[in-house]
Write a structure and sequence with these properties.
heterodimer; A: 293 residues; mainly alpha; B: 356 residues; alpha/beta; Rossmann fold; Alpha-Beta Plaits; 6-stranded mixed sheet; 4-stranded antiparallel sheet; ABC transporter ATP-binding protein (chain B); AAA+_ATPase (chain B); transport (chain B); nucleotide-binding (chain B); ATP hydrolysis activity (chain B)
């Protein structure tokens, strides 16, 4: 048997790792950003698909829908401008799904456990991962806004408005990131997570104010749209885009103009984020605890 | 147990270790792992581990054997802080698993049974991520990564994504990521399962090398040959409890002598008769006799010296011996003797009678 020398033992003490919280966040942020760039699925689904929607919808429905938009928001709003904020929210929704898929993959390929046996702070691990996803969503919304402007959309509030729309997209994404992570922990199965999250995406988008003003849609859709988070995300983004009060599901007049939409919508989204976030934190800490089940 | 009780239990060792941190190195030279009275019961009532006591010394190459489902992985997960013990005291590198899990995580390497690497990252990126996760100082990371890539022979594919790797390459990469922080203690949970012999041999060399450098290794394996080649000490777990503990040579000795395999020309009836003769054979004290597919197998201290006498006795009884072989017991025999004893209650009773 090899007997370690006295100096050998001292070395071990010195070699003991010294992780910091921000260091752990950064390590995980880097890993997940690298993985996002590597994974064609992430880029195609969360960017190409909304882009195709943007082009197809404006080209195919632009002329027809233009009338409906004028009916809802008054003349002068062109359909591309109307649609771009909705696509920005669609990007956030599609990207948020990949958060849960990433977690399920980690559980399946053993990286989840590997991270648990490492000395990294577990909260920092999840913050780092979520930051990578949120950062990606902001970039993707920026790209969509740029393309929208190229296609003729107009951001009334300019660059500040563009940043505002990115912020709304990020705030909106929290509840769905949390939701897809909850699905991931509960199913521990990649396909169920993808199907579960994707199945929801289209109904949520279509049964909201995303593609047409609610006034021209059937009553039952108007009712559903009230409880649909997408409506609040799209309305807030659209209010910034047009600098107008566009919200029809909650009537607020306490502020002025666009703020009558933005303030209540942001409040609703923040609340949703907190509720779903708490659920995800609970399930994630249960999944990573060493308590016997 | 009441909550207060368990908190009180947990507090004492922590204070102890803080108070004696200066002398910890002296303590650690003695034991890397110290388990007493470990019990683990899963939520559904399954008692995976019941009353395990085990000590592993610093620098040892320790093998942990047992049939599937005996509790090997459960014990290793408790030691790696992935599972909290239901009862008992467990210390790893001098730290308590309940109160100081993070200090344990900093000072161990853990290679899970399932290969755990990120397939979307390259070999180098996987190791680098591990360096960062274990807080390897920034200045050392390049050197450490290169050193480990060299150690597991993956420099040539350092920039290739690991999803393209063969099973053996993935395992080697996984092993490398468990060693980035030069842990004094490494857990290897069936590291070579499913590998071809060449890949297995390479991993063996590599484990021996890090053990020679002073690293304590805690290995579980299904391959007894592997345990025999690598381990200085073995423990066998069965139904959640340790049933044997010692060096491979000690354990083989406990089997009760050498093994004489005899092949017989006739059918099962002849085998039964031969077995009876062997059991009643005077020269073999406390012999274990088993009927095999082709004949009988006798384990006895005097198997080498008096084996020919038994062959003569068999011939005198009119049985045709077509072949025989005397050999030292292998770990396979040890394993069979230990685990067979309780798994097969009928045979077990017979063995118990003959070997007091």
């Amino acid at each position: 048997m090899s007997t370690p020398t006295e100096s050998g033992t001292t070395d071990r003490e010195v070699a003991r790792s010294a992780n910091t919280f921000t260091g752990d966040v950064w390590v995980n942020f880097k890993r997940w950003s690298l993985k996002a760039v590597r994974n064609p699925f992430v880029l195609v689904v969360s960017l190409a698909q909304p882009f195709i929607f943007l082009v197809l919808f404006t080209e195919v429905f632009g002329n027809v829908a233009g009338g409906a938009v004028s009916e809802g928001l008054g003349p002068g709003v062109d359909y591309t401008t109307f649609l771009v904020p909705a696509i920005a929210i669609q990007v956030a929704l599609a990207s948020a799904v990949t958060s849960g898929i990433g977690l399920v993959n980690d559980i399946e390929n053993g990286m989840f456990e590997k991270v648990l046996v490492s000395p990294m702070n577990r909260t920092a691990v999840f913050i780092g991962k979520t930051l990578a996803e949120v950062f990606r969503i902001a970039l993707q919304i920026a790209i969509i806004l740029g393309l929208g402007v190229l296609l003729g959309a107009e951001i009334t509030t300019g660059v500040v408005g563009a940043v505002g729309i990115m912020a709304v997209g990020i705030l909106f994404s929290f509840w769905f990131i949390a939701f897809s992570n909850m699905l991931a922990v509960l199913t521990r199965d990649q396909e169920s997570t993808i199907i579960g999250a994707n199945l929801l995406q289209f109904p949520l988008l279509f049964l909201s104010s995303a593609f047409l003003p609610l006034e021209v849609l059937p009553n039952w859709i108007q009712l559903f749209a009230r409880i649909n988070p997408v409506t609040y995300g799209v309305d807030a983004a659209r209010a910034i885009m047009l600098d107008e009060d566009v919200m029809t599901v909650i009537e607020v007049t306490a502020f002025d103009g666009a703020l009558d939409t933005i303030v209540p919508a942001v409040a609703v989204l923040a609340g949703l984020g907190l509720v779903f976030g708490a659920g995800a934190v609970y399930l994630l800490s249960r999944a990573s605890s060493s308590d016997v089940r | 147990m009441s909550n207060e009780q368990s908190i009180a239990d947990a507090e004492t060792p922590r204070e102890h270790s803080q108070g004696s941190s200066a002398s910890r190195s002296g303590f650690a030279e003695e034991t890397s792992i110290d388990i007493s009275g470990l019990e683990l019961t899963y939520g559904d009532g399954t008692e995976a581990v019941s009353g395990v006591d085990l000590t592993v010394g610093d620098g040892e190459f320790f093998g942990f054997l047992g049939p599937n489902g005996a509790g090997k992985t459960t014990v290793i997960k408790v030691l790696a802080t992935l599972l909290s013990p239901t009862a008992g005291e467990v210390r790893v590198n001098g730290f308590d698993v309940r109160t100081e899990p993070r200090k344990i995580r900093e000072s161990i390497g853990y290679m899970a049974q399932e290969t755990s690497i990120d397939p979307e990252l390259t070999a180098e990126e996987n190791i680098r991520f591990a360096c960062e996760a274990y807080g390897v100082p920034r200045g050392d990371r390049d050197e450490r990564t290169a050193e480990l890539l060299d150690l597991v022979d993956l420099e040539a594919v350092a920039d290739k994504r690991s999803e393209e790797f063969s099973g053996g390459m993935k395992k080697r990469l996984d092993a490398a990521t468990a060693l980035v922080h030069r842990p004094p203690l490494v857990f290897l949970d069936e590291p070579t399962t499913g590998l071809d012999p060449t890949a297995r041999n390479r991993l063996w060399e590599y484990f021996q090398r890090i053990n020679e450098q002073g690293t304590t290794i805690f290995l579980t394996t299904q391959y007894l040959e592997e345990a025999d080649t690598l381990c200085e000490r073995l423990a066998v777990i069965l139904d959640g409890g340790i049933v044997a503990d010692g060096s491979p040579a000690d354990l083989k000795q406990e089997v009760g002598g050498d093994v004489l395999d005899i092949e017989l020309g006739d059918g099962p009836e002849a085998r039964a008769r031969a077995a009876t003769i062997a059991r009643e054979f005077d020269d073999f004290d406390a012999a274990t006799v088993e009927e095999t597919e082709t004949g009988i197998s006798v384990t006895a201290k005097a198997a080498r010296q008096s084996g020919t006498d038994l062959l003569v006795a068999l011939r005198d009884a009119g049985l045709i011996v077509t072949g025989f072989n005397v050999r030292a017991p292998t770990l396979d025999d040890v394993f069979l003797a230990i685990t067979g004893e309780r798994v097969d209650t009928d045979d077990g009773a017979a063995i118990m009678e003959e070997s007091p």
